[in-house]
Structures are given as structure tokens and as C-alpha cells.
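User: quick one
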Amino acid sequence: MSEAEQTVGEADLHAWADGRLAEGRRAEVEAWLAAHPEEAERASAYRALNEQLRTHYEPVLDEPVPERLESAALRRRRWRAAAAIAGWIAVGAAVGGVTGWQLHAQRAPVPLAQPDSPVIARRAALAHATYAPEVRHPVEVGADQEQHLVAWLSKRLGAEVRAPRLEAEGMTLVGGRLLPRDPGPVAQFMYQSAPGRRVTLYVRTEGPDQRETAFRFAREGNVRVFYWIDRKFGYALSSADLDRDELLKLANAVYQQLNP
Amino acid sequence: MSDAGSLIALIPRLRRYARALVGERAAADDLVQDTLERAWSKLHLYRHGTDLRAWLFTVMHNVHVNQVRASRPTTALDDEMPELAQRAVQGDALLVRDLERAIAALPAAQREVLLLVALEDLSYDETARVLGIPIGTVMSRLARARDKVRVSMHGKGASKLQVVK
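Assistant: Done. Structure below.
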């Protein structure tokens, strides 16, 4: 022990409290601490402080994320999308109304969306604008693993979701991804036609008191959205490539598939 | 996962650290927002495959240092800071308040080290890299921070007894 005594220093006390000592060293330090109650008490207090800090701030992890932070995390994608597809600049402008992003200062020629567009349409359009232009990573899980994709999204949403088949409408499934939302995450499926036109289906769970609604239409910049609530799910079908009538036809196909 | 997806997933962790660092919720979220915006403009400096969270802490550190410099000539609160009027609170609430106050009373440089190590569980090496300081400085700041918090929480309990009349 006397050997350890010479070598146990201040840094060892902290490393012990932080659980950063290798196993052999930890035994040495603990033997030393057993013989030095004052230092042992101090090291224990350091360790207790770690616990207190983690316990005290842990609830922050579960707080709903404010929309402005989510938007800040997505921001660059919107710039990129806006640069890639000029018309989409209006999406940024529409969102800017909410986030304070001052894009409308550019006098975008495209009409701005109504600020009171329902949240589901706004979010779906934003998610569409974020991921639809992606060339390399449009989805997290590809259609080649469709079973896995559907099982995974169902598990995370806590309800059985399905990816409608839209081949008859000329749209094939690209894959899907999970998006953050409070409460509970959202699923996004992406479809693509042969000429590369893309549509995304945004699926979220709804509270038990939600009633069914008819199709509603919203326009967020160049992204058109049909959205509706059906039993325990809210759906939003978005596209910047399809016109309103094409999108409505597709929304009907989705609705019928999900309600056989 | 995409960059945006990774950033979104890390927001809760950034918020937790910012809350402990800054104290007040709105100010902490402002710091997170500034950090995310800064991260996008500096993304070319991030090396893929390295720890994104640690890199974001670095970005947040830089943003925070700039803000503190811009807003307050004195870089940190210290123990001389006059105590806020305190209403009577009991038990856990008292402890919690003392914890927050003890953390807030630390000089910013010590607070950062303590929180990265004790709250965010970064290694001493990672902490040194995030803050751009030698590991010896990490250890000395950590030691000073812990002793101050210990004394301040311990001491407060004693002085409170004297206040009661």
C-alpha cells in the first residue's frame, strides 16, 4: 500500500469519482482510500455530485423540442433545396414566418402559404422539402427491406402502419424514415415515378379524440399537400412534382388501400 | 443518418448541457439554436466519422464564449455575487436550488469542464479537445470546480440555519 500511497494523487480521486480508472488501478486507489477516510469522503462527494447533476438535468432530455430548434437543425437542407429548386424558396419563406427566417425579404415571386396552415401540412411539407431532393440518402431504410421498414416504423409509432402500394398509379416505394415529433415520432414513406417525380406520405398517430376528416388541401410554397385524419392516424401526402389533381388521385388511392 | 437527422437527434443532449451551462431555459435554447446555426455554417470543418456530439459541444463552447464576452465584461459570476433573495423552500427543492446556484456561481471555464465531465460523461481527453485546452488544465479546473461546489453547498446549509430567527 505504501507504494500506492506515493502515487495516488488528486487526479486519481477525480478519475475514481468519474469511473475513469482501469480496473487494476481502481483496486489500488480504493485500497488507498480505505486507509484515508478524509480523501475517501471527498472522492465520494465528487461522485455524489455527478449523480446529483445527472438526476437534476435528466428531465431536460424528455422535454418536447421547440420547433425553432428543430428548424435550426434542418435549416441548411432548406437552403440547399431552395438553391436546387428555385420554386422551393417559398417553403423557406413560409417556414420563416414561424421561425423568424427572413427569406421573404428576397421578394419571392411564389405566393406564400397561409400562416395558419395546419401543423400536419406544414410539417409534412417541410419534411418533404428536406428529404425529397436527396439523391444519395432520400430514405433511411430502402424498399428492398420493406418488411423491416414497416415493422420498424410500426414499432416506433406504437401502431401498425402500412406502406400503400402505388404501382398502379405509376409510383414505386423508395423507402422510409422516422422523423422526430412531440409526442411520438412520425413515419415518412417516399415514392417515386419512373421520370423521378417524388411523393412523400407522412403518417403520424392521433389522439383517441380525433375524428375522421375529409381530404384537405394545403400549399406550402411549391409543395402541395393533401391531408386527412382516419381513425388513429393523421396522413399528409406531399409533392412538389405533381399537380393538385394528380396528387388528389394518389391520395384517394392511398386512402382506399388503407381502408380495404 | 443524414446530417440534419443526426443534428435533430442530438438536440436533447445539447439542450441539457446548455441548460446546466446557462441556467435559464429560454437563454439555454437560444444558445442551442445559435449552436445549430453555427454548426451548419461550419459543417465543412466537421470530420465525418468522428463524434458529432463532441464537435457540437466545441461549437457551443465557441458560441458561448463569444456571447459571454459580448454581453458581460466580467467573464463569469463568482462567489462574491450577491445572493438572490431566497424564499423558504424545503428538502429536495432546497438541495436543487443550492445545486443550481453552486453551478451558476462557478467561473464559466470551470463550469464547462465540470459539466462536460460530470454531466455529459466526456473523458478528460475529449473535454480537453472540446475546449481546446491541455488535459492538465482540465484536471485543475475540474478539481477547483468540485471543491467550490462542495464548499458552497455545504456552507449554504450552515448559513441558512443562522438566517432563521
